[in-house]
Design goal:
The complex is a heterodimer of chains A (239) and B (484).
Chain A (H helix, E strand, L loop, with lengths): L1 E4 L3 H5 L2 H13 L3 E3 L9 H6 L2 H15 L5 E3 L2 H14 L4 H13 E3 H8 L8 E8 L3 H6 L4 H8 L2 E5 L14 H5 L1 H18 L3 E4 L2 H14 L4 E4 H5 L3
Parallel strand pairs in A: 1-2, 1-3, 3-4, 5-6, 5-7, 7-8
Chain B lengths: L8 H9 L2 H25 L2 H20 L1 H14 L3 E5 L2 H14 L4 E4 L3 H6 L1 H7 L3 E4 L2 H9 L15 H12 L7 H18 L2 E4 L3 E3 L4 E6 L3 H7 L3 E7 L3 E2 L5 H12 L7 E5 L13 E7 L3 H6 L14 H4 L4 H4 L10 H12 L16 H5 L6 H14 L10 H13 L3 H15 L3 E2 L2 E2 L16 E2 L6 H9 L7
Parallel strand pairs in B: 1-10, 2-3, 2-4, 4-7, 5-8, 7-10
Antiparallel strand pairs in B: 5-6, 6-9, 11-12, 12-13
Helix pairs in contact in B: 9-10, 16-18
């Protein structure tokens, strides 16, 4: 099966190792991964800031790049939600682009959704060690309704035990623009999330979004905490 | 109208974050509300049946709001038929004038009040005092904040931020009661103090949770019984409500009476549900001689006129969106600066009071969506917040553009950088050069850039990777290329 990877800005620019992990996992599952090289951004940052015109412009470029692919795989619940849910809102007054957006949304999948629901695999043949806890990223959970898929994939990794944290579905306080506009509130919300991670006793927290991870890691590193915050692809790539 | 202090959201939220009393109260009360709600719903409903009820309530509200003129007219006729008086007030000042006129006509010295958020919008208590009328709040929480001279901290738990010690001090100062930390004792102190007001007040003022248009019935749900006293003992009863509170027919009511208490306090039903269809009739033993209902606009038309924001008028003021909001749970109600707080406050404050002064509020959300999931009438709060952000950023309403020029500059730069891959690669190369002096071991510990420097106060920021994923792909991760 062929699938086009949408790396997302954060993975492309800041965390390319997550992209490499995605490729490793998908190739292990016999997916012929392609990377449409003209890709840039889905437009979410402008959309969430209220700048719809700029967002629509960038989203049109995104559709140009990806609309001829059979499957588009995105290692982020947030970017996948932008494409699958919010493009509908963005192009609500533009019938032609709306039709393109709907078609693209249909074949776009967040990574764990793609592995579990399209490839129908829950054991990706990976190996790791430790006690892992899972953080539900908000858009993945509430826009796309995906919470069982990542958990079953984590459960399928040999050597790893999944230990739920309290309120795993509570927001970590990132919120994109929010974390920049209201850093103090953002950190106060994060404190509660870090307490929950600590309470789980896990040595690793896994999430499907580099936004949440960048936010969590930023504080974990600043405070010298020992817990690791990694993308689910990095866990699944282990062998 | 009550003063709007929403422009100070940032300062006020910082203050709340550092106030240990507020943090303790938020932690405690919010968890209590969310747990009580979850178990009250689970006790009686499956996920599907609860969801079906929300869908039905949302449909009833959408229909009513879509035909608001018709149903307000119907309610007007029904209430008059029942012997009541109906008033329509354009704004807070108008509504206040109507209340004071009625009070003057009846030579009212003291007015007792049951909880009403619209009266908070109006700043009614202060206006009554200026007119020589003594207003007394009779809902315990409202009574406490009236003594403290504050505004409600939460839509349904206005004094949740007050400790029992603070309440005891207030009662000691105002009622000369002996200090106590026994909650039952505090309740009876308030009860005794309020009793004499119930006996002597000439006028009762209430809100309305619902107004049934077909029958002209005002429905009030309360837990303390004070609402029933306020509507039955004084000679005159004045109910004040937003014009969106109308429901078509009595058959539309049960679904809301099931949704509201469960969503708000996690109760199956509140202790009192009062149905008031007009003044005392010839065979009634009690009840007011005169009954008035004031429908208030006060900015609601601004919501109604906007096709997207109109949905916010479905709100039944249960407070569930506050209880589940990660931001409200940290900053509490006063930070929002007016009457309504949390996600619904962030949506309605700007359109109702002026967009510019409330420009921070639509951005004070992580867009996590928890509010939408618990809203009993399915208001898509994240969508409404995004819509307001759009109005503020692009100034689609008149003179309401609020984004700073620096923000617009960032967006323009970003837009230029992501137009094509070649442009993005150029920006990335430039970024890598510029970040060099800031990077230590792959991290940026301090970002000296306007708007975004706050990020690194308590967090590291990742450095741009030495090679982007695109470059790694081109350099060998992807399939081998034909030499060019």
């Amino acid at each position: 099966m062929q699938a086009a990877l949408c790396a997302t800005c954060l993975v492309d620019q800041f965390f390319p190792e997550v992209g490499e992990a995605v490729v490793t996992v998908l190739r292990r599952l016999d997916v012929d991964v392609t990377f449409p090289e003209e890709q840039t951004c889905c437009g979410q940052i402008a959309f969430n800031g209220g700048y719809r015109k700029e967002a629509a412009d960038v989203a049109r470029h995104f559709m140009d790049v990806f609309e001829n692919e059979r499957h588009v795989v995105v290692p982020s619940g947030s970017c996948a939600s932008m494409i699958k849910v919010y493009y509908r809102e963005l192009f609500r007054d533009d019938p032609d682009d709306l039709e393109r957006a709907l078609a693209l949304g249909e074949k776009t999948h967040e990574l764990t959704d793609f592995i579990v629901n399209v490839l129908e695999v829950t054991d990706v043949g990976s190996l790791a060690r430790g006690l892992v806890t899972y953080h539900d990223s908000c858009h993945l959970l509430r826009e796309l309704g995906i919470s069982a898929e990542p958990r079953s994939l984590i459960g399928g990794v040999s050597g790893v035990e999944l230990q739920e944290m309290p309120n795993a579905d509570a927001c970590c306080g990132f919120g994109g623009l929010f974390s920049v506009k209201f850093p103090e509130i953002s950190i106060a919300i994060l404190d509660e999330k870090l307490d929950a991670i600590r309470a789980s006793g896990a040595d690793t927290v896994v999430a499907n979004d580099c936004g949440c991870l960048m936010h969590m890691r930023g504080a974990i590193e600043r405070r010298g905490m020992s817990v690791r915050a990694i993308h689910i692809a990095e866990l699944l790539a282990g062998e | 109208m009550a003063q709007v202090k929403s422009a100070a959201f940032k300062k006020a939220s910082t203050r709340a974050l550092h106030d240990q009393g507020i943090q303790h109260a938020l932690n405690h009360v919010m968890n209590h509300f969310t747990e009580a709600r979850a178990s009250a719903i689970a006790a009686d409903y499956s996920d599907e049946s609860w969801d079906a009820m929300r869908t039905r309530a949302a449909a009833i509200k959408a229909h009513t709001i879509g035909n608001l003129d018709y149903y307000l007219d119907l309610a007007d006729r029904s209430i008059r038929r029942n012997g009541g008086h109906v008033h329509f007030a354009d704004d807070a000042a108008d509504a206040t004038r109507i209340v004071i006129d009625i009070a003057k006509r009846h030579d009212v010295k003291r007015a007792i009040k049951s909880k009403s958020m619209v009266s908070e919008e109006m700043g009614l208590n202060d206006a009554l005092k200026r007119a020589g009328i003594d207003p007394v709040e009779t809902d315990l929480g409202e009574y406490i904040i009236q003594l403290a001279g504050e505004t409600p901290f939460h839509i349904i738990a206005p004094a949740m931020h007050k400790t029992r010690e603070e309440v005891s001090d207030l009662f000691h100062d105002w009622l000369k009661s002996a200090p106590t930390s026994d909650i039952a004792r505090l309740c009876s102190i308030a009860r005794e103090a309020l009793r004499k007001h119930f006996e002597t007040a000439e006028m009762g003022i209430t809100g309305a949770n619902f107004v049934v248009a077909e029958t002209g019935t005002v429905v009030i749900v309360t837990n303390e019984g004070n609402g029933r006293m306020v509507t039955s003992t004084p000679r005159v009863h004045v109910a004040i409500c937003g014009m969106e509170k109308v429901l078509p027919a009595i058959e539309d009511l049960p679904v809301f009476l099931r949704l509201l208490p469960r969503s708000a306090t996690g109760q199956r039903t509140t202790s009192y549900t009062s149905f008031i269809s007009g003044p005392r009739g010839p065979s009634d033993e009690d009840g007011p001689e005169e009954f008035h209902l004031i429908f208030v606009d006060n900015g609601r038309l601004n919501l109604l006129k906007d096709e997207v924001l109109r949905e916010a008028l479905s709100c039944i003021r249960c407070g569930a969106c506050l209880n589940h909001c990660p931001v409200y749970r940290k900053v509490g109600g006063h930070a929002y600066g007016w009457v309504y707080s949390g996600p619904i406050g962030a949506v309605v404050t700007g359109p109702m009071t002026g967009m510019k002064q409330a420009a921070d509020l639509p951005f004070a959300s992580t867009l996590c969506g928890a509010c939408r999931d618990v809203c009993p009438v399915k208001i898509d709060l994240p969508k409404l917040l995004l819509h307001l952000r759009h109005r503020l950023a692009e100034g689609t309403g008149s003179g309401e553009r609020a984004g700073t020029w620096m923000e617009r500059l960032y967006i323009r730069r970003w837009h230029d950088a992501v137009k094509t891959r070649a442009a993005l690669d150029r920006s990335t190369r430039l970024g890598r050069l510029l970040q060099k002096p800031l990077v230590r071991r792959g991290k940026v510990r301090s970002l000296p850039l306007p708007v975004i420097s706050g990020w690194t106060k308590d967090r590291d920021f990742p450095a741009l990777a030495p090679k982007s994923f695109g470059e790694i792909w081109r350099d060998g991760l992807g399939p081998a290329r034909e030499p060019e």
